[in-house]
Each structure stands twice: as C-alpha cells, then as structure tokens.
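Please, structure for the following, as tokens.
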Amino acid sequence: MAPAPRAPSLSPLLVLLCWTSLSARAGEPPSTWEDLMDAPTPQALEAVEQRIVGQGCEPRLLGDAKRRFVEAQLLCDAYLSFIFVQATLEGSPLPDSRRRLKALLADALGRARAPFLADGTTRVADRALPLSILYRGHVLLMLAGMHHAGLADPEDSVLFDALAAQLVEALSRQRLLPSFGRSIWPCDSAPAAAGLLLHGRLRGADASTAMGKRLVERLVELTSLPTGFPTRVDAKGRPVEATPRGTTLAWTGAYLGMAGHPAASTFTRTLVRTHCDRPAGDLLPLAACREWPRGVHGKEDSASGPLLHGYSVGASALAIAATHLSAEHTTWHRQLLNTAREMGIQPMLQKPDKHPLEATLFWWGLTTRPWASVQ
C-alpha cells in the first residue's frame, strides 16, 4: 500500500503557539495535561445539566448564529445521558442519577422532538415520536444506557421494547431511513444500529439483534463502494453525495463502538487513514481530522463546523470518541485531545453552561467506553 500523502503543515504561528504551551508543561506529570485532562467534575456536570434541561441548548455551533445546528437539544440530552450512565457503570454514580437520566429522557421525548416533527410522527407506547432515524436512534440508545446501568423503571422498559420493535418493523421495509425529510445520511443509522444491538442483549430480543446486525452490514457494504462511504444516499441506497466525510466516518465509528461491534474499526481505521493527520509531523504531539478527503476542497457546513486549514472541528471532536473506543488508536486519541486543548476547549469546559453542546460532546468522547459487556 502506498503511503498517505504528507499533510500540509500548520501555520508557523500556530506551531509556535502550541510549542510554547506544550513546552511550558513539559515537566508536569502526564496525568495533569495529557491522559486525564479536563475530566468533568460533578459541579461542571451539574452546571451543564441545569442549562440543558432548563434554558436548553442553542441550535447553533460555537454560539455562532450563522452556524445552525437544529438537533443540538437532542444531542445535548443524549451525550449527557451517556456520561451519567458511564459514571454509574464505572462505580462513581452521580447523586440522583436515575432522576437525572429520567429528566434528560423526558426532554428528549418532549421539546427535542421539535426539529423533526415536520416530517411526521409515529405512535410508540402512546407517544408521538418523529420518524427520523437520527431521532429514534438516539432515544433508543439513551434507553439502552439506562437499562445497562440498572437505572430504568418499568415505564422505560415498555418504551424501550416498543421503540425497538417499531424500528425493526420500519427497517424491514426500508434498510436505510431518512434523517430529515427524504434525506438519508447512512451515518445517522449508526445510533439506531447500536441501540438495537444493545436492546437485543439487554432484553433477550433476537429480532433486535438480527436487525441491528443487518443494519451494520448495510453500512459496511457502503464502505466498499469505489468512492467510499457516501455522505448521502437515496431510498435505494444509491449515492447522492458520494464523497466520504470525516464527520460521517467518525460518527459511525463512535456509535458502533458504543455497542462494541467490531465493524466500528472499519470506520475508525478509514477515518484515520484518509482524513486525519499529524499536521506538525513529529514536532508536536498533535492530531486533527479533515472534513473532506485530502485534495478535496469542500466548504464548511453544520456537520463539519468551522474548518481551519481544511481541518474540521466536527470531525476532530467526533474522532476523539471514535478513537477512544478503539484499542488500536490510543495515540491518535491522546493527540486529538492535545489539539482540542491547545485550540481552546478549556475555556468552554470551564463554563459548560455557556457551551453545553461542545462540552458534552467533548466529555462524551473523553469518558465513553463500549457497552458490550452485556450478556
């Protein structure tokens, strides 16, 4: 295999700034600035929780009104839910974890539906839920986490089973379902696939397991296209936007990794090989991921977030989670964390109530582990 093309260097000023910052900490123990940096404290989680279930998450990226991100509330609910679940699984539950998870679920089942309601709803356990696979997959995964952590109640179990069954039925008719309107982004099926696999394990539901595997197989099939994993397809699975993107690869690798499915490595390896670089070479322990393949000069949008010299905030942030869930990419994970810190994540983490989406996304990537130990 031919070596990957060498990435363009970071600007000299950026290299100088990062070098100065890293050099100043060179004598510090690694745990203070590399391995466990910026781990969320209970106080920080409480602050961001109050913002998410109170005022809510703004439908924009980095507080910029020009960067609309309509699913922000749903993702804020989901990522914080995943963080609370992981804390419980690791033996350090936050006080009132059940109540907090129930509040986040209620928010996801309530106002977080708003951006998806125009495309129609379906009845699930006496609730009107949007048809969007993006929406239903996240709710299913939130319920899976609550069950995995032993924090679900009978009402949650009814909804978990009903939603899984409804997704199995819908996916039996069409293998890939839309995210918004008729727009089908294959990556948005990854949360549903993970949720179905986990439902199958947690509830002994063979139909969920079979459909989860079938959905993952379909996603993997798409990676074998000559153009790679497509950004968007039509109802028959034919590429509409064929160019693979960093955010879609990282997103898919991260969510499949949560369910411990081995196919997660297909997407994470491809992401690292085709979209991620060490922009300063061996000079600095930094890594970043592109939105577009090397040599493709695409524009930024709500998925990519801001682009800097071709490197994507969205792809790099999601890659933190994807590489953390991959045992073979631990060095990439640490170097992506270094870059996030050097490029300004810490001020956002110090005031997470001002940046709830960015903080919860980062903390999810920092804390996530496979939920694959369920028998």
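The beta strands are 60-61, 64-68, 121-124, 127-130, 232-233, 239-241, 276-277, 288-289, 307-308, 311-312. The chain has 15 helices and ten strands.
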